[in-house]
Amino acid sequence: MRIVRFTPPASAGIGTDPHFGVLNDQGEILVIKGDPIYSGIVPTDKKVLLEDVRLLAPVIPRSKVVCVGKNYADHAAEMNSAVPDEPIIFLKPNTSVIGPEEIIQWPAMAPSIDYEGELAIVISRICKDVPKEKYADVVYGYTIANDVTSRELQKRDGQWMRAKSFDTFCPLGPWIETEFLPGSQRIETVVDGIVKQSEPISSMIFDIPTIINFVSSVMTLLPGDVILTGTPSGIGPMAAGDKVEISIEGIGQLTNTVSAHAKG
Length: 264
Hints:
The chain is mainly beta. It has five helices and 19 strands.
């Protein structure tokens, strides 16, 4: 099931505030009541066409976006780092989240900004110390993320918070796929028509059960929290006007473009 969050057209007769819905294979969205993570799927009698709406980030984390660093061996190598012995985690604020087709803003203090295509986990309920064998009990579904990063600021600061936390630095979408089962599906990042990243998600050093177990042993996870699971090798800078397309087999494609470099 694909859960979308969207702004409907005025002609739909349901107002212009954001709504949630269930997208079918015919491109129709069944409008539902409230936030399905909290309220479940409560259908209305309204339908809209996908082509008529503006898709938004499918979830706005109420609490946090937790990210896993260096979770693909080839990416660790391109960063001149050893493969970590345990997950490396950091946070992005929920103010960094934007949706499909929104503009990634290139801030003045960042000399360059990099793309990092990633599989993202959406958490379904309050949880702590989740056993690996119970990980699926706390997963609402999966979506796609771009962990936008200022590499120079990351190196300058010696830690990652500023480099990854600017507004618009966490595109999410296009929807939440609740029936996705992580396996050997390929994640691919295309920048202006050129494939930059392409690797099966099974290449992750730490798999989904391990990530959820580890993160939840550190902090309580809340409904709607998002966990980014790391990026494959092939990271690199984006230029002004670039179109960045990140796809994962079985989920879909997240597309964003890059603004001009802001002037300080």
